[in-house]
Amino acid sequence: MINELLAAAILSTSFSVRTPNDDTKPLDYEYMVKSEKTEGSFTYTAKRDWERELGEKYVDDIFKFNKNIYGFYGGMDYIDKTSKNIHYETYNIGLTKHGFRIGASWKDNEPMLEVGFLKNFKKDDFNYNVKLSIKYSDHYSDEGSIISLKSELKKWFGKFNIFALSKYDYYNKNEDFQFKVGVGIQL
Description:
- This protein has a single domain, classed as Beta Barrel (Porin), CATH 2.40.160.
- 5% of the residues lie in helices and 73% in strands.
- A hairpin with a 2-residue loop joins β4 and β5.
- The radius of gyration is 18 Å and the shape is globular.
């Protein structure tokens, strides 16, 4: 089990500073620490952000894990983005085949339909990863639907890469959109 947790795990950190939209406020910043494993039958993401936006300080936590066994999956998502007022926890089970997922999620003991798609494409020195997850329940209507979309493109130059990342999260009429371009290194 320990080997599966650590094999192919990626540890990363980033720091950014930017001028705020309000000149009377101090500089905005974001510091991130993340560990993730995106390939294999057991995958996870554990991420923490410390940030200041328009003078307000926030701590955002994301923890997701998933286990695939013989075409079935089970897992959990814990999202606490105080900076965007997005907070939820779901427990997920279902069927998966060729990157497609269909199953059920439970949030606050209420069932939700979950559909999704996860695929990693590799060709030569390009990597493209896309992940879409939609969780819906009539009980929650439009306010409680959860939509998460992430895509990342990397171009490798030996151990270095240039990447473009886009993420979109929607929950309870709150949205979080991020777009990043950067340089990475494989240690």
